[in-house]
Amino acid sequence: MKKFRILMVLILVSGAINAQIRIDSSFAFSTNPAKKYSIYVPSAYNPSVPNEVILAFHPLDLLRWDASSWCDTLLAFAESNDLLLVCPDGGANGDVTDQIDYDFTEALLDSLKKWYHVDTSRMYAFGFSKGGKAVYEFGLSHADLFGGIMSLGVETPTVTGIIKNAGRRPYYLLNGSNDSPSTKLTPLKTSLEANCAYVETNILSGIGHTIDFPNRNQLLKDAYNWIDSVNLSPKTGSITLVDPISFTSVDIKGFHQYPHRFTWERSSLADNCGVMKYEVMFDVHNGDFSNPLVVVSSDSGGIDTVLTASNHVIDSTLAGLGVALNASITLDWTVRSTLLGKYSDTAKAFTIALTRKALGFKLLSPSTNTKVLLENGSNRLFDWQDMLHYISVKYQLLLDDTSGDFSNPVLDIFSPNNGANSNYNISHENLYYRLFFRDHLEIGDSMILKWTARAKDTVYSELAASERIVWLKRGQVGFSLISPPTNAIMQCKKGVDYTFVWDSVPLQGITYEWLFDTLGANLKDTAAIVVKSSGSGTRARISITYEFLDNLMDVYHVDYLDTLHVQWTSRAMDTAGVEYSLETYTGQIIRAHPVGIDSHESAYTFRIFPNPAKDEMHLAWPGELEPVQLKMIDATGKCSLTKRIGKNKTEITLDVSELTPGVYILYLETDKDVLKSNVLIH
User: What is the pTM of this model?
Assistant: First the structure.
């Protein structure tokens, strides 16, 4: 069957090029493995242009009618009118009104459009008797497919719920005078006209329920010519614009919520048949609306004779057209209506002038060239005119370089209360960390910026009417240490740990380091111990264990109950710079745990020099020791350096330049023993 269908397509295409042709064929559909149809291609068929189509449903009479015999009956009519004729078959029971037949007909028409060059605006349908019933039931259910319908001696169709689709289309009803026209033709005609259809009738004198009547092809031709001419004839009416009248000037204020209304009279085509849709079009002055600047449906989805447009929408549209604030544009506007997607009319255009009016709200303070010192505890109030009479306005404070245009400002921040306040008492932290820290400015340095405010809502956005210069000078700000407090006395005692805490910096991407050394050392530049804070440097704290302090005591040779005087601070870093804490705290560490408890005693010793070390460290040991490997463990327990030692060596030099400054435990492993010593890397 698949090969046959492919062959049929090839036959159809080749036949279409060399029309005329008659086709009786079938294809599998639903439960029917060979659903039949017949097609006639007229000799005038031209594949390079769209061609008219007539769908024809045959009557119910198994002894005479099927798709093939029905096609034979109408072949001369189709040929004389240059119509592609397509006839679906009613199947084993001969009834074309079964649902499977309607579904098959829809599929057949879809295939026809693929096989032939079809003029979809000039597709028509015809049916006789039971086929007449089918043509109305199928035709009104698929009204958009057909430009009109012809029928003869119609068996009463079931059109409840679909008769409303009849409007604005032509219907030609033929009926024999001896075939009960009062019960077949008249009620159908009345229903069609009540639903705004264009109806023409022809009572055939002396004719009963038959298609075999004299001059048949001419009468069918007359019917076809009528529906075709009605279908093709334009249906136009008129619309009269009402307001705003021509040459009106309209100010558009983007934050105002009240609307502007464009109104017009109802189209002369409008009636109770079908839904008339309206569109408002705007074009350049004296434009022809063939390519309008803006097209928008009227209210209620295009049904109302009014367009309500807020200042928001109009201002946004004008901005999109390139109209600057406080500038004007002259446009023509008109209304276009459509009915059933095909009948239309257009009003004579009016001309209007639209001006985008800026709010022009003012900056209040600080005044231009104000010098602002930013240091601990200092705030700076930025203030501007409040636009309280506008709804849902939010404000932003913007600072930018003096050469910038605020499109990519240095600082862009909503005012307090989610943007509702018309001022911002901005703290030193916000400006300090957002500006100075990232620009590497030292204490005492200044930066010159300009500032303004922006008022905005979900649609509209406007900068203040001016901008001002402000000088920002970096004072002493930084961040503070918290605990342990300065001069704290700490104990190096087993089971006792300490947590060092400081202020966090209100910026993303910051990491912290803890700096520690003995009292009197240059803590910021050459701290003996520099360790990342907790959370891989993300938290403003670090926990220091007893083991760490005990190693520290060993490095500095602090005996039991002796005191080590120390200092500590912290620093914050990101990719742009480094900021140290404002303070350096001092403290005392008392070695409260007896030296030597839990330590391992070895018969051998080894020497480390220099200790503390910076770039290189030398180790030496007696020949009989024979170490095989050394390791260096940092204060967190991480192995930072491992090195294998060859045989017969009594000394080694280590490169420690890449190690992080801090306290380490060095383990020297032999086959029989492990020796350890504390070392300090600067």
Answer: 0.44
